[in-house]
Amino acid sequence: METWRLLDLGFLEPLRAQTFYEAVASSVDRGDSPNTIILCQPKSPYVCIGFHQELEREIDADYCRANDLPIIRRSQGGGATYLDQNQVFYQVIARGESTVIPARIEELFEKLLAVPVYVYRQLGLQAEFKPLNDVVVNGRKISGSGAGRFGDDTIILVGNIILDLDYDSMTRVLRVPDEKFRDKMAKSMREWVTSLRRELGSTPEARLIKELLRQGYQRLLGIDVRPDAPTPEEESMWEMEVKKRHLSPEWLHQEDVVEGRRGRTVKVAEGVKIVQADYKATKLIRITAELAGEKMVNVTFSGDFFIIPENSLHHLESMLEGASLDRAEIQRIVEDFYISDVQTPAVRAGDFVEALMKLKEAA
């Protein structure tokens, strides 16, 4: 039986609640710390965007600034969301060599999300896992999650147990075309996203939720979970590296964050177009490209999809530079990209091909 560490960090300021696990992941990846489960809650509200999203297109940044809502870009994919003290976060950090961690992200979600399913069922709700990465009760989403890879061989899965939801704030922070669209979005969220308060009529204490999570990890994963505290090295890593990175404008706005990835601002010359196209697979793929005729001078991907490793996307962008908008050529390049150890759960190689061909339609 594997012995894992449990860090109950209580209430944390938003940046620490959202990112401290990265310092732990660095330590776990080096072999200095054991596999770890972190439980915590944010002290105050904030907005979180996915690694591949464009902040300016997803979030009403002016509203967030006016209302003192920090905007934090996480290190995993997925969509933008509003978070506050009414969520209990669970953050699982484990080396890939662990016998309880599946190699495929789809299997990782199914196995580890059995734990929040267990928690909700212990509270009397008929929760179920819904692929790719949702937990639902009566057809409504009641837990969000994301996953990624850190360093050489460390897997991260993060998510939340939703105690209560502020639907108005969830919709207000998002950038939308108009207020009519916002009203429709708010109505849709109320129909398809729920919480413990809504389902039970009251909110269980966070300490009960945490105890049920501990039980779930121990029973369902077959591991020995032991309470512990962060190491001085993890505290220093967060303060000196993780915190500084996440507070930098370069990280928040994704300006050359990934080595080799081009910025989004280009100069348009005669015969050159900037084209943007959206393709909705299971997840949104958005492409911005500089085209000279039908040749791609450069390409940038964004959206709410997951790709493991997260920073591998710039490699596909580089492979596409100079390619023509020819389906056969694009398909060959995308298939070559997938030969490497890349995972895009719920998104297929063919989805990237179709998204790229949308550029031709839009040009």
Overview of this structure, please?
The chain folds into 2 domains: 3-253, Bira Bifunctional Protein, Domain 2 (BirA Bifunctional Protein, domain 2); 272-362, CO dehydrogenase flavoprotein, C-terminal domain (Enolase-like, domain 1, 2-Layer Sandwich), CATH 3.30.390. The protein is globular, with a radius of gyration of 21 Å. The chain is 39% helix and 26% strand. The strands form 4 sheets. The protein has a 6-stranded mixed sheet with strand order 10-11-6-2-1-12, sandwiched between helices. A 3-stranded mixed sheet has the order 4-3-5. It has helices at residues 14-30, 55-58, 61-66, 105-112, 114-122, 167-172, 179-192, 196-200, 206-221, 232-247, 249-253, 313-320, 327-339, 349-362, and strands at 3-12, 36-42, 46-49, 71-73, 81-83, 87-95, 127-130, 134-137, 140-143, 145-150, 154-162, 224-227, 272-280, 284-292, 295-303. The chain is built from 14 helices and 15 strands. It is an alpha+beta fold. Helix 1 (14-30) crosses helix 10, helix 5 (114-122) packs across helix 9 and helix 12 packs antiparallel against helix 13.
